[in-house]
Amino acid sequence: MRLDKFLKVSRLIKRRTLAKEVCDGGGVEVNRRPAKAGTDVKPGDILTLKLGNRWQTVEILATPESIAADRAKETYRVLAEGKTRPGEP
């Protein structure tokens, strides 16, 4: 599944166009590598996202084509989040 679509389906980012902008602007890494919107993602991949002034690291658990909003959090597991990049003091 494309990264921008996963971000939208999982509700990590509300709109796919915004997900594309964040990805193409360098705000997302997949497995510690900068990723563009079209990068393929799969269960087990680790995403690091910079959303505004906040960082979040998640592990992808599932990549369904669509899912109900109340079940979207089942597609990922939060590993870390905060105001600094994970792994930095």
TrEMBL record:
It comes from Moorella mulderi DSM 14980. It comes from the Bacteria. The gene is hslR. The keyword Magnesium does not apply. PROSITE patterns: S4. Keywords: Protein biosynthesis, RNA-binding, rRNA-binding, Stress response, tRNA-binding. Associates with stalled 50S ribosomal subunits. Binds to RqcH, 23S rRNA and the P-site tRNA. Does not require RqcH for association with 50S subunits. HAMAP family: RqcP (MF_00871). GO terms for molecular function: ribosomal large subunit binding; rRNA binding; tRNA binding. Key component of the ribosome quality control system (RQC), a ribosome-associated complex that mediates the extraction of incompletely synthesized nascent chains from stalled ribosomes and their subsequent degradation. RqcH recruits Ala-charged tRNA, and with RqcP directs the elongation of stalled nascent chains on 50S ribosomal subunits, leading to non-templated C-terminal alanine extensions (Ala tail). The Ala tail promotes nascent chain degradation. RqcP is associated with the translocation-like movement of the peptidyl-tRNA from the A-site into the P-site. One of its GO terms (biological process) is rescue of stalled ribosome. Belongs to the RqcP family. The keyword RNA-binding applies. Residues 1-60 form the RNA-binding S4 domain. This is RQC P-site tRNA stabilizing factor.
